[in-house]
Write a structure and sequence with these properties.
The chain is of the alpha/beta class.
């Protein structure tokens, strides 16, 4: 007689969208709250700070982690940006635009209050304020996004 394996997880097979959660290193301490927010909205968070901590505590070349992040962005269905946009987040937004992915923006008021914001309400970190125009792309025209290939 063959034993039958059962586990509750095997009955939970509904496909859910994968959401890359883009956030500045300055919001690192909100990483779990952001993942919780995405899960509560019926999506699966791909949170770089949960996957790789902060550059794997600098135990590996940072460009390897950046390449891994780029791969995760590529596999994600959407990009959700939390808090002020940093240079790394802006690079992820550019990649998402080039791939035709939806990008959504959120503010973090505190650990229990995360709110959607319009593109006009998005805050930019000081070093990227002059690149605000790169947050948007014309609908359906992802080939002409103002983003260029640059390193983070």
């Amino acid at each position: 007689m063959t034993a039958s394996f059962e586990h509750r997880a095997l009955n939970l097979q509904d496909k859910q969208d994968l959401i890359y959660t883009a956030l500045s290193k300055h919001l690192y301490y909100f990483r779990a709250h952001i993942s919780k927010y995405v899960l509560e909205h019926g999506k699966v968070p791909l949170n770089p700070f949960m996957l790789f901590d902060y550059f794997l505590l600098d135990t590996i070349d940072r460009d390897r982690v950046r390449q891994a992040n780029n791969t995760v962005v590529e596999r994600a269905d959407e990009i959700w940006c939390f808090g002020p946009v940093s240079n790394g987040v802006l690079a992820e937004i550019c990649q998402a635009h080039k791939q035709g992915k939806a990008v959504r923006y959120f503010s973090i008021e505190n650990s229990s209050t995360i709110l959607p914001v319009s593109i006009e309400e998005v805050e930019m970190e000081e070093e990227v304020k002059t690149f605000r125009y790169m947050l948007s792309t014309k609908e359906g025209n992802h080939d002409n996004t103002p983003c260029s290939h640059t390193t983070r």
